[in-house]
Amino acid sequence: MPGKHMQNRLLAHSTPLILALILLAFVAGVALTGDRALARMAAETLVRVTLVVGLWIFVGNSGVISFGHAGYMAIGAYCSAWLTLKPQAKALFLPDLPVWLANAEWHVFPAAIASGFLAAFVALISGAAILRLSGIAASIATFAFLAIVYTVYSNWEGVTGATSSVVGLTRYVGPWVALAWAVAAIVAANLYANSASGLALRATREDEVAARASGIDQYRHRLLSLVISGFFTGVAGALFGHSLGVLNPDSFYLGITFIALAMLVVGGIGSLSGAVTGVLVLSLLIEALVRLEQGITIGEAALALPSGAQEILIGIVMILVLILRPAGLTGGAEFRLRARTPRLSFDQEQTTTN
Amino acid sequence: MSRLGVFDVSVRYGKVPALTDVTLHIGEGERIFISGPNGAGKSSLLKAISGAVPTAHGRIELDGDLLTGRPPEAVARLGLSMVPEGREIFGRLTVEENLRVGTGIRRDADAVEGDIAEIYRAFPILAERRHASAGALSGGQQQMLAIGRALMTNPKLMMVDEPSLGLAPKIVDQVYDTLVALQEERGLTLLIVEQSSVRAGRVGGRMILLRGGQVVGEGDAAAFADKDALTEAYFGKTGKEAAE
Amino acid sequence: MNTAAQLFFDAASLGGIYAMAALGIALIFGVMNLVNFAHGQYIAFCVFALIVPSTDAVAVMFLGRAPAFLLIPLLLAVGAAAAVASEYAVFRHLRKATPVAMMISSFALGFVIQNALLATYGGRPKAISLWPELNTPVTVMGASVPLLQLIVILATLTVVAGLALLLKKTRIGLEMRAAAENFTMARLLGVRANVVITGAFALSGALAAAVALIMATQTGVADVRMGGQIMLVAFIATVIGGLGSLPGAVAAGFLIGAVSVLLQAYLPLDARPFRDAFLYTLVIVSLLVRPQGLFVPSSAKPRV
């Protein structure tokens, strides 16, 4: 039935629409409260959506866990700093930049795109090597990649400021800008996942050997997905810098790697909806925990969680999800409209285990 | 009382049934062949008995001890030993280490050395290569090793899955000669999965036919080997190929 | 001063630490296909077990006050207990999960342990003083070598030999090797899965404790981040040694130690801060050349 097939393919594109509407409702809700702390939280959350959706484009489709994406994020973040910071500031803090970069004074938007392209380019180079490995060996190699980026950026005194923070980035990313990029990432992720390459790649996810035997050029599809993934991860890095205003190599190491993977796993690696759900759920949890760490007063008693409690709790949630619901909260399903019954539902056709 | 009792056992992989209400009994010292075409459930039956896959329904007993619901290591402790399909020897261990892996469950530790000597007497080639890594043995030698390894647990019941798979006919003869000789010496109870009913008939014993996960016939193995018509009735078209 | 001898002792002692850490990881991988990212945190945990839990800046010795003949077995037991507890709490429930799911959960567990240490002890590195007399140099073969380096080299050899003996000569060792090769078959022969896995975790944890003792003595610092760096190197060693291969892990540990010392000695001064970047790049290159690992025959199938 070609008609029905066509309809199904169209309905697959309802997923980004639903996800975008959820995020829109989230931002609009926050904007209505007029609370500045909440607006900051919303912006951070949406930057994470861009990051985690970017990560999902590779991990979700290929099934290979990447510990290296914080590296692409760092590359994007610093690239945007190089392009947008005031030349006087760069002369002072980053004296070894080449002249054309030292004098550049771009607007944030083109800088973010350029950051995405730089990260995508590095993804192409690093992926060309790493993705020749299979499964777990590739995962460990991505870890080595992260360590390389971290070592370089924490020691490249005149170009990245090494371990001292780069300050003074335009704080241009509010909830609405972050929303626009998050939606762009979601649309791109959905387009890729439903493209010939994305479908072929997901066919290889379960069984590398069988896929290779069936003639799918797994390497090329993995590389393509990593390049797209690298682009959005790089953009997320740029957005991250322009929402905090400060950059430090430590922001792009194990902590963010952990949080991003936790979001992906908790939501469900198998689906785009899972990636977005994971970000929203864990961001709310983080926000609650941050407030508890700062301390709250109930009646007479002041309560405060020790620092580190946030990571401990997220780690425990992550382990529990892996044990009790290994396919994540969404079970690997997508939010999408069903034929004739236009309501939100989990479409089990898309169900896969990771 | 029978040595092995299988009562109404069903096994499912997800929603796909592999065995449906299988019942069979094996007496002490008996030799039973399980035969049937591919996908008949022969391997599933062995896996269910050994505890490698869970049963959806039914009960399995060895000398009155309940096996169902126990993990494989517990089943092995109750006296069941397995020579699996493809032999599954430990290639990186030496021949002698292979023989010793299963001796941890024995209560008569003093008898172990004597039993190893006995295995070496039955399979002189293994004695010769006792310190070689088992992965370097030929297919037939590996089959001998797998049998020896299973015997070393001192089992009440030994299950052998497709011993002829991938071996030259002459070697298969040798394997069966050894199995029969060992059984006569030790009073062992044997359950053998054998696709070729001709082979089973030649060796002799009781035969149980499986098809589509159910028992469809039972009788003297020699009778099945001779009666092509009967075989075909049970196996359908593939049966002829399977019978040879 | 004999430079070559100096470099040799530096490389052998650093490599020894890496080799022991890599062994701990390879043991677990061999038995249950788990890439245990929490291993580095077992090391950190053992270092902090030496001092009294408190967020004060000054460390007060706790277990570390015990005399060596008590402290060493005690800390090995602490490491073993930590690893076994983590198996019991987390990995036991993931036996049927995919290797990827187990790997991620170990990553999460490592984070939980690290942040638990952070919450208990505070984030700032603390100076600790464990057997400071071991850092006094002695002269060997014309090189001035801290006594500790010699002890590390000896300890590594002892540990490796002891482990080899244990695996080769004992019942549990035989069962572990059989299980590492074919877990299902081993169980069909009556090998108890829980015993073997618990044994592997206990050994792995004890190895982590040995690394912790050496690092604590050598650096004189307790830092919640100290597990991460060593763990990454150890992982890389297990991968280039051939995942799951114990001799491979040891050889690769020594190799990485040697390369790292050589890079430190011969890289131009400007490039030295980037030593680790060079090291990891070399690792990726070596994986590309021999994806199945440097120390396994190229005919062997990669296990993952």
TrEMBL record, chain B:
In terms of superkingdom, the source organism counts as: Bacteria
Q: ABC transporter domain: which residues?
A: 4-237
Q: Does the keyword Isomerase apply?
A: no
What keywords would UniProt list here?
A: Amino-acid transport, ATP-binding, Nucleotide-binding, Transport
Q: Name one Pfam family in it.
A: ABC_tran
A GO term, aspect molecular function: ATP binding
- Listed InterPro entries: AAA+_ATPase, ABC_transporter-like_ATP-bd, ABC_transporter-like_CS, BCAA_Transport_ATP-bd_LivF, P-loop_NTPase
Q: Which family does it belong to?
A: Belongs to the ABC transporter superfamily.
What is the protein name given in its UniProt record? ABC transporter ATP-binding protein
> Which species is the source of this protein?
Defluviimonas salinarum
Automatic annotation (TrEMBL), chain C:
Localization (cell): Cell membrane
Organism of origin: Albidovulum salinarum
> Looking at the keywords, is Acyltransferase present?
no
InterPro entries attached to this UniProt entry: ABC_transp_permease (IPR001851), BCAA_transport_permease (IPR052157)
Q: Which Pfam families match?
A: BPD_transp_2
Family matches, as PANTHER family: AMINO ACID ABC TRANSPORTER PERMEASE PROTEIN, BRANCHED-CHAIN AMINO ACID TRANSPORT SYSTEM PERMEASE PROTEIN LIVH
Q: What is the protein's name according to its record? A: Branched-chain amino acid ABC transporter permease
- Where exactly are the transmembrane stretches of this chain? 12-35, 42-63, 69-91, 103-123, 143-167, 195-218, 230-256, 277-296
Its membrane topology: Multi-pass membrane protein
Q: Which UniProt keywords apply?
A: Amino-acid transport, Cell membrane, Membrane, Transmembrane, Transmembrane helix, Transport
| Family to which this protein belongs | Belongs to the binding-protein-dependent transport system permease family. LivHM subfamily.
